[in-house]
Design brief:
Elements (H helix, E strand, L loop, with lengths): L16 H12 L3 H14 L4 E7 L5 E6 L6 H7 L25 H8 L1 E7 L6 E7 L2 E2 L3 E3 L4 E7 L15 H18 L4 E5 L6 E3 L7 H12 L7 E8 L2 E8 L4 E2 L5 E5 L2 E3 L2 H10 L9 E2 L1 E7 L4 E2 L10 E2 L2 H19 L5 H14 L9 H4 L7 E2 L51 H4 L9 H9 L5 E6 L3 E6 L2 E6 H18 L5 E11 L2 H9 L1 H6 L3 E4 L4 E8 L7 H14 L16 H16 L10 H13 L13 E5 H7 L4
Parallel strand pairs: 1-8, 13-16
Antiparallel strand pairs: 1-2, 2-7, 3-4, 3-7, 4-5, 4-6, 8-9, 10-11, 11-16, 12-15, 13-14, 17-18, 19-20, 20-21, 21-22, 22-26, 23-25, 24-25
Helix pairs in contact: 1-4, 2-5, 5-6, 7-8, 13-17, 13-18, 16-17
């Protein structure tokens, strides 16, 4: 078969300037949203305080950006559409870039693929000037009436490169992309008024919030991220070695199905950086499900020499001189902010609960008793007023205990024990009528006693246990429904982490060591990590081929199934991708080893928690509530599920038509 003749080499030549601009436009102007981003950033760099964007046809037919910035004179207009002409590098130092745009590529690139018209006037100019660029061909600068500032119109985008139009999405999708880009700029610049107008919809308006500091920033974030964000966010402010981090982070129970509501700015520049996203995921790792994403906005400020913003044509990524320092700062700051937030759960959780109640309870009518509302099996509501079952052992006074597994002492920080006047006896027998047991007057108490006790604590006073799984607590202005297993799982996990950080987890030796059999490879994996598992309170030894001997377990997990615990830890080791020797080496706070050990502790805590279906005494329920109030992050379990739902009395009254 004859070989294909090779193409003769072409001589080296200079490309046509217009062709050069169109090639560059392929990187700089990927879609209409890219053009809008470049034009709005130019307006911000020009000192604009009000920027209005108008688009038609998703930006294909028209993009108009009007600002009240410094404006340009005739000479500036001529240079502005030349490649690599910029006013933003006065010293020519690429290591100290403090503006959004600096390459001088945006306007010539846009003008190479569309019909571009610039009209501008400076503050001291007697008249404005206008310049047109049609598919790369520049016209003459002409006088034109214009207010102070700049007006840029881009018509028929990609008309000079029609093949690019085939890769664009629908008008609606392109407009949505433009709006998303404008939202990111709005987060970065709360003091600037931003408006987006498009066909067939109300304008997107972000009023200028002034220079009000964190309060102004929170107002802008609420406008961008939604009205629920303010009530479900915690402020953040931390500095370390030349880097300052500020912003607001959403509660773990306030999350989304994608990462679109995560906003970063670096020295005022909106970025989408993988390092920063990874740090956020690590910070929320043990408070949020892996398929959910937090809602937050973080601003990093540092010396421009500490960050390289010239690593991506669209300037959406950056490189930090000390990436590990930035990552550690983000993780530490988010952890601290969430811990300061305390025992909170998202207000949207209560809203979803009310929606479910409206859909499920109201059509059935108001039940005569809770037992009737339970459907299926009767709803067992255990309260503190009633006869004690013969099989129930008395609880020592003053020593609320959750029993083994997973007992823990009463709360020790900031929250006093609740008065127990409403609970004078242990639980009623299964199936006892809820209405009779719930009447405190039968045992000498009064509703006022319970209300007073509830008002002393954020999570109120326990009044009942439903289905031996959920605790009902009364607060001064509503009620709280607690998932006892999810809540206690978080408490045990946080206790284990505190003990590990303090130097070692308390352990308890087994009277008779347990032998756990498994595949030889699995046994080898466990034994390879035996040194680190011992630091977590689990002491293992080899016991022949395909078996390990368990001599000690964490004291908080005493009484749990040893085999189930070991197999679950084995799954955690396999799931984290640990190999032989990978647990060795020094541990850095928030580093890979710390995260892996926390993942193992999270698995352990599930075994030490109160299980669903376990009947609790009033003292135990109230001790759980007090411990939740004293434990940060107790609003979600280790897997990201809410541990409690708080409902206001006014919302409950609306369910029954009282409001």
């Amino acid at each position: 078969m004859p070989s294909t003749p090779s193409r003769p080499p072409a001589p080296v030549r200079r490309l046509d300037p217009i062709l050069v601009d169109r090639i560059a436009a392929g990187e700089v102007v990927e879609r209409p949203a890219s053009a809008v981003k470049e034009l709005v950033e130019n307006a911000i760099d020009a000192g604009a305080r009000s920027i209005e964007v108008t688009v038609e046809g998703g930006g294909r037919r028209l993009i108009r950006v009007v600002d009240d910035g410094a404006g340009m004179d005739a000479d500036d207009l001529t240079l502005a559409v030349e490649r690599h002409a910029t006013s933003k590098l006065p010293g020519g130092d690429l290591t100290r870039i403090d503006t959004l745009g600096f390459r001088g590529e945006a306007l010539p690139s846009i003008g190479a693929v569309a019909h571009l018209t610039l009209t501008s006037r400076t503050a001291d100019g007697e008249t404005g000037h206008s310049l047109m660029v049609d598919a790369g061909i520049r016209g003459e600068v002409r006088p034109a009436p214009s207010p102070r500032g700049t007006r840029i119109e881009v018509a028929d985008l990609f008309s000079a490169t029609p093949a690019r139009l085939k890769f664009l999405k629908s008008d609606r999708a392109e407009t949505a992309a433009i709006a998303d880009g404008l939202r990111r700029l709005a987060v970065a610049e709360p003091g600037i008024r931003l408006v987006l107008r498009s066909e067939g919809g109300s304008p997107l308006v972000f009023p200028a919030e002034g220079e009000g500091g964190p309060a102004a920033m929170l107002r802008r974030l609420t406008a961008v991220l939604g009205p629920d964000f303010g009530a479900n966010a915690a402020p953040l402010d931390m500095a370390r070695e030349g880097f300052a981090l500020s912003g607001h982070v959403g509660l773990p129970s306030y999350h989304r199905g994608n990462a679109n509501q995560i906003h970063f700015t670096v020295n005022g520049r909106p970025v989408r950086d993988r390092l920063l996203l990874g740090a956020v995921r690590g910070a929320y790792a043990d408070t949020m499900s892996s398929d959910r994403h937090p809602v937050l906005a973080l601003s990093i400020t540092c010396d421009p020499a500490f960050v390289d913003v010239n690593v991506h044509p669209a300037k959406t990524e950056v490189r930090f001189r000390d990436a590990s320092l930035v990552r550690g700062l983000i993780v530490s700051a988010i952890h601290e902010a969430l811990r300061r937030a305390g025992a909170r759960t998202a207000t949207t959780t209560a809203a979803r609960t009310l929606d479910a109640l409206r859909g499920e309870i109201l059509p059935l009518g108001v039940p005569d008793t809770f037992a009737e509302a339970g459907g299926g099996r009767p709803m067992q509501a255990h309260t503190g007023w009633g006869a004690r079952p013969a099989t129930t052992a008395p609880l020592p006074r003053g020593l609320p205990s959750f029993g083994a597994p997973g007992r823990f002492p009463p709360a020790r920080s900031g929250f006093d024990e609740a008065p127990q006047a409403a609970f004078t006896h242990d639980f009623a027998p299964p199936g006892a009528d809820f209405r009779q047991n719930a009447d405190p007057s039968q045992e000498g108490g009064s509703p006022d006693d319970a209300t007073e006790a509830a008002g002393d604590h954020p999570l109120g006073a326990a009044r009942a246990q439903l289905h031996e799984t959920y605790i009902v607590a009364q607060t001064r202005d509503g009620l709280v429904l607690v998932d006892q297993h999810a809540a206690h799982e978080r408490l045990v996990y946080e206790r284990l982490k505190r003990e590990r950080a303090a130097g070692g987890i308390a352990r308890q030796g087994l009277l008779i060591p347990d032998v756990v059999e498994m595949a030889p490879d699995d046994a080898a994996r466990l034994l390879d990590a035996a040194g680190d598992l011992e630091r977590l309170g689990l002491t293992l030894e080899a016991f022949g081929t395909g078996a390990v001997l368990v001599r000690e377990v964490p004291a908080a997990l005493a009484g749990a199934s040893t085999r189930t615990l070991v197999i679950d830890i084995l799954d955690a080791l396999a799931g984290s991708g640990l190999e032989e020797g990978s647990l060795d080496g020094p541990e850095a706070g928030g580093g890979p080893l710390s995260r892996r050990l926390d993942a193992i502790l999270s698995r352990m805590s599930c075994h030490g928690s109160i299980r669903a279906g376990r009947r609790l005494r009033p003292e135990e329920m109230n001790a759980l509530l007090r411990e939740m109030e004293a434990t940060p992050l107790s609003g979600t379990c280790n897997h990201g599920r809410p541990t409690f739902v708080a409902l206001k009395l006014a919302d409950i009254e609306r369910l029954f038509g009282r409001r």
